[in-house]
Amino acid sequence: MNREIKFRGKRKDNGEWKYGWYVKCRRHHYILPIHNIDDPNLFFDERWIQEGGDEDNWFEVDPETVSQYIGCNDDKDKKDMYTGDIVLLYDNVIHEGTHVVIEWLQNRLGFFGKFIDGPYKDKYTDLTDTWRKYEVVGNIFDEKEINKE
């Protein structure tokens, strides 16, 4: 299996999204920027916390916002899809115009979409259906309500 593993989280100091590897160290949660990802011999990048905050730092993030990349991209803009993303389904069938939130289901060992509106609200759907199209329209951390027009 060759799936890209990466995470995102919102910085504690300014709320900016950071993308990379997730590390929990001494009760703190960090996102480390990914460097040299094309080097197959590089298993991790040693970085250290410095004053100043440039791309070589570990960024402390709010653990409630840490989300994992699910290995898929949306069909509209090719955006990476993460747990916690709000995704619009458009499939020209029964789910047209409904939204799901991407979640990890431990009992199914996979990423699924939980309907947050429409006739299937609070039910789950598989995200691997090839006939269905997806568009990331927000996430549960930035969007308090879904703005549907």
Structural class assignment:
mainly beta
Report the β-strand fraction as a percent range. 35-45%
Assigned CATH class of the largest domain: Mainly Beta
Radius of gyration: 17 Å
Helix-strand string: EEEEEEEEEEE
Sheet of most strands: 6 strands, antiparallel
Distance between the termini: 40 Å
> How many β-strand runs?
11
Keywords:
6-stranded antiparallel β-sheet, SH3 type barrels, 0% helix, mainly beta, 149 residues, 5-stranded antiparallel β-sheet
Write the layout of secondary structure elements.
Layout: E1 7-10, E2 17-25, E3 28-32, E4 59-60, E5 67-73, E6 80-82, E7 85-90, E8 99-105, E9 110-115, E10 124-126, E11 133-139
Antiparallel strand pairs: 1-2, 1-5, 2-3, 3-4, 5-6, 7-8, 7-11, 8-9, 9-10
What would a concise description of this structure say?
The protein is mainly β and 149 residues long. It has two domains: 7-64, no CATH class; 70-139, SH3 type barrels.
